[in-house]
Design brief:
The protein is α+β, with helices and mostly antiparallel strands. It is built from 7 helices and 10 strands. The protein is globular and about 60 Å long. It binds a DNA duplex (16 and 16 nucleotides) through loops.
DNA sequence: CTGTTTACCTGGGGGC
DNA sequence: TGCCCCCAGGTAAACA
């Protein structure tokens, strides 16, 4: 599923490919993908250029030169990538953006149709982030803010790291990967964490995310980057979907349980409560 | 108000 | 081969 490293990889690719290209046409065969009416969305995009692209957590922002911004969230199985205009769309392609005199189009594919597009005023991005209760981005969050957000609620650690208001960008894969590297139990309560442990955990969060970005993300199931290619971080997973495999650190078999409503992979020896 | 559960979707895999 | 059921998990909405 697309988490921070996957969204960052897509954003970096799109920056190279679609900045300053004029949008000529937008089509959709599943208009629910767009939050507001598709006809107004289509009208607002036509004739505009994408002037800048940014990301916060798992949200990406494609800003147009008419002071509007397209917000994209890929949710579980969303794919946003460039493909030749001659490529015929398949049944999972729900949106296509065409550019003037260009051999390529930007398409949105999503098997489970959970992803969403939304159009807002560019100067309201910060308001939007507040409305969604999005916390600081995981790559840039300051230790003090992370510490405060963790202490505010006494949550199970796994749930706290998945909570986008605490830290934005982590999902099920990277939370499990961080916890096994930190030898922390997913069941530990946040208020029992020592300040020094919070510090090392945050540096591990940033380290794992950066490594995953270098590997162009994790393609466990459907994720592909802006060129439709798979990532390579799945080769470096130590916990996620590794149940039955020996632990990277001690050789004990990785276990799987359900925590905070999610599949949670952990080493029963390294990650004791 | 806050924590918990369900809905949104489809494909894949297990059981039979 | 095929049918049924469950599972995958990000977020919003409904619920207790």
């Amino acid at each position: 599923m697309p988490e921070l490293p996957e969204v960052e990889t897509v954003v970096r690719g799109l920056k190279k490919e679609v900045i300053n290209k004029k949008i000529t046409r937008v089509t959709s065969s599943y208009q629910k993908i767009v939050k507001q009416s598709f006809s107004s969305f289509k009208k607002a995009l036509a004739g505009q250029k994408i002037s800048s692209i940014s990301r916060h957590g798992k949200y990406s922002f494609l800003s147009l030169n008419n002071k509007k911004t397209i917000i994209v969230h890929l949710r579980m199985t969303g794919q946003l990538f460039i493909t030749p205009t001659t490529q015929k769309k398949d049944k999972h392609t729900h949106l296509e953006i065409f550019f003037g005199s260009n051999k390529h189009k930007l398409i949105y594919r999503d098997i489970r149709k959970f992803g969403r597009f939304e159009l807002i005023d560019t100067d309201k991005i910060n308001t939007y982030l507040k409305e969604k209760k999005l916390g600081p981005d995981a790559l840039t969050i300051k230790l003090n803010d992370f510490q405060d957000n963790l202490q505010k609620k006494n949550l199970i650690l796994k749930a706290a790291l998945l909570d986008q208001s605490v830290i934005a960008g982590l999902g099920n894969i990277y939370v499990d990967e961080v916890l096994i590297r930190e030898k922390l139990s997913p069941l530990k309560m946040t208020q029992t964490l020592k300040p020094l442990k919070v510090k090392t955990m945050l540096s591990t969060i940033k380290k794992v995310l950066k490594e995953a970005i270098l590997k162009k993300g994790t393609s466990y199931s459907d994720y592909v980057n802006s060129y439709g290619e798979k990532g390579k971080f799945q080769l470096h997973l130590r916990a996620y979907q590794q149940h039955g495999q020996p632990c990277y650190h001690c050789g004990t078999l990785i276990n799987k349980m359900k925590t905070a409503g999610r599949g949670t992979h952990y080493c029963p020896k390294c990650q004791k409560l």
